[in-house]
Specification:
42% helix; alpha/beta; 359 residues; elongated; six-stranded parallel β-sheet
Length: 359
């Protein structure tokens, strides 16, 4: 079955049939219904997607590149919330999301081979294979939770302010020994950072920690940072146990994420410590986990919907600019914008006054 078969049956042109599938706004509702009914009767499913992509010079797909494995990405409530918001915002445009591994898989290089119009680089290390290939393909790129490459847009949380707000909250409660727990995938073993000003292996961990360290030192306190390999339970458990088992145990911990904060709360309970009477804990993200933990976590809220919308808007702008050119590179009317999403301190039950005698 072809377009012409349907056109002959309805008594219209091939272009009219094509519009019924691809540009419904060009037809009356009645005529479109008639054409689609005829196509269904004949067993015609629509124009060939590959041919349509060639004609449009667009495949209708946006890649989302992740550092972690695709399976584990959906175990992260923060990543899942962002993907949902991004997909919802892109849905009216007809663009679909394609998940792209950050590195080659079984000899295949998805970032090189997949048909894509643009890509979102989500919290990836800057030197991954995927980022290099997508950049070489001159695709419009939007970086989320990661510093962008020159000429690309970015959507970033105000991570530094988040770290500062957490420490200022704890200092205001009288805490004088505040530890920061973060991640650093460059470390072979977990441990205390030798230099609290040089920590973290990605944009988010570096900037969140920097904000916290700045606030600790501005309060006249000594900054201590403990690093674990990754933001996963099996790594967090060892880090939390090490912090609480330290001879100089802190009275408060500022955590890279809600997941880490939940791990610290769990480790405190196992050690016989009460949260927040003996130990105050602050998370980051305000994910579902923050409200499920007992006591509920004080945390820094990020607006997942606003971040998803901002990323979708940046993508559509980048695509519009790219399609306005006749060359292979995106148009450059000016430096693409970096959108900063604010964070908000949410105080719950996991923080309280410093234990008496701790100062």
């Amino acid at each position: 079955m072809t377009l012409q078969t349907v056109a002959d049956k309805v008594g219209v042109s091939r272009m009219t049939v094509s519009n019924a599938f691809s540009r419904p706004d060009q037809l009356s509702a009645g005529l479109r219904t008639q054409i689609l009914a005829a196509a269904a009767e004949l067993g015609y499913v629509g124009p060939d997607p590959a041919a349509r992509a060639l004609a449009r010079r667009s495949v209708g797909a946006v890649g989302v590149v992740l550092t972690d494995s695709l399976g584990e990405a959906f175990l992260d409530p923060v990543a899942s919330a962002f993907f949902g918001a991004l997909a919802d915002e892109l849905a009216p445009t007809g663009m679909a999301l394609s998940l792209v591994p950050a590195d080659a898989v079984g000899g295949r290089v998805p970032a090189r081979d997949l048909a894509l119009d643009a890509a979102v680089i989500y919290a990836c290390a800057g030197d991954t294979d995927a980022v290099e290939w997508l950049s070489r393909r001159c695709l419009p790129l939007v970086f989320v939770d990661q510093a962008p490459l020159p000429g690309s847009a970015a959507v970033l949380l105000d991570e530094r302010s988040g770290g500062r707000l957490a420490v200022e909250h704890l200092a205001g409660l009288g805490h004088r020994d505040i530890v920061v727990l973060t991640m650093n995938s460059d470390r072979d073993e977990p441990g205390w950072a030798r230099d609290p000003h040089r920590v973290g292996s990605n944009h988010v961990s570096r900037v969140r920690t920097a904000g916290a360290v700045e606030a600790i030192e501005e309060a006249g306190l000594t900054a201590r940072v403990y690093e674990v390999y990754d933001n996963r339970d099996r790594y967090v458990a060892d880090g939390a146990a090490a912090i609480l088992g330290d001879p100089h145990r802190p009275t408060a911990v500022v955590c890279f994420s809600d997941l880490m904060a939940a791990g610290v709360v769990r480790a405190a309970e196992e050690s016989g410590l009460r949260v927040p009477d003996d130990l105050s804990v602050v998370g980051f993200d305000d994910s579902v986990l923050a409200r499920a933990v007992r006591p509920a976590l004080t945390t820094l809220r990020q607006d997942f919907v606003a971040k998803g919308r901002a990323a979708a808007h940046a993508l559509t702008e980048a695509l519009t600019a790219a399609r306005a050119t006749t060359g292979t590179s995106p148009a450059e009317p000016g430096e693409p914008a970096t959108v900063t999403i604010p964070v908000q301190l949410v105080v719950r039950e996991s923080t309280g006054p410093a234990p008496s005698g701790s100062g």
